[in-house]
Write a structure and sequence with these properties.
Layout lengths: L9 E4 L8 H15 L7 H16 L7 H15 L6 H13 L6 H10 L3 E6 L3 H8 L8 E4 H4 L6 H11 L6 E5 L2 H11 L2 E5 L15 E3 L5 H7 L6
Parallel strand pairs: 1-2, 1-4, 2-3, 4-5, 5-6
Helix pairs in contact: 1-2, 1-4, 2-3, 3-4, 4-6
Length: 236
């Protein structure tokens, strides 16, 4: 007889794109940058595509670098590739903007509801402690733990970051449900490690992995309570 899946003790979350408005904040930052450099003719999406390519490569290239260092270097390489001069303030503005990015409208209320249901909440994020502190401060005091790439010395989809998080939380993969928006980072790790995972598909251009199906796909965080009710994991 197949037993029903156990209620997770911890809900872990990707931060940027799941809880925090990453795409929206990055678009605003790049528009401001191009305005300052007199390059409003350049397509913003092209800039972000180039930036993402450099950032993801550097995250997986030894030696391990802080997210702040990767952000600065990615900005410098992107501007060089697109024919614009890099100034140190360009990188610092980006880092400050990331830390200030706000949550999606439904996030705080949903996190508060999850806390009333007795779930422990943890963020597992490809960032530095001091950068994410500004984002976590906007989440209504709901987050119990924050695990970063800085702490684990590894970036998703490297399993080391999730293994570090599970060790810090003293849990196995059956004790956790991960909620995320990034297919090539979080879903890739879930596929390899076997932990339960909900994909938040906010209608961006991100595509699901062709060889992995998450436990659920939801359009935003507001649908998470309904999913948990459907699994029999809440006591309302």
């Amino acid at each position: 007889m197949n037993l029903p899946p156990t209620r997770p003790r911890w809900l872990t979350f990707d931060c940027y794109g799941t809880l925090i408005q990453w795409d929206e904040g990055l678009l605003d930052c790049v528009r401001d940058l191009l305005q300052r450099k007199g390059r409003t003719d350049l397509d913003v999406d092209r800039f972000i595509t180039v930036y993402d390519r450099h950032e993801h490569r550097l995250e997986q290239t030894p030696p391990h670098r802080s997210f702040a260092e990767i952000s600065r270097l990615s900005m410098s390489l992107t501007l060089e590739e697109l024919g614009m001069p890099f100034e140190p303030k360009d990188g610092e503005r980006l880092i400050r903007r990331i830390s200030q990015m706000p949550p999606f409208p439904e996030v705080v209320a949903t996190l508060q509801w999850l806390k009333t249901q007795g779930f422990m909440l943890c963020i597992v994020s490809n960032t530095d402690d001091d950068i994410i502190a500004g984002n976590v401060a906007q989440l209504g005091g709901c987050i119990d733990r924050v695990i970063t790439a800085q702490q684990a010395q590894a970036y998703k989809p490297n399993h080391q970051l999730f293994q570090h998080a599970h060790a810090q939380l003293s849990v196995g993969i059956d004790d956790v449900l991960h909620i995320c928006a990034s297919p090539h980072l979080d879903l890739e790790a879930a596929k390899g490690m076997g932990f339960r995972c909900v994909w938040i598909d906010r209608g961006t251009q991100r595509k699901p992995l062709p060889d992995y199906t998450p436990d659920a796909t939801l359009p935003d965080l507001a649908k998470v309570p309904h999913y948990l009710r459907s699994r029999g994991w809440v006591n309302e």
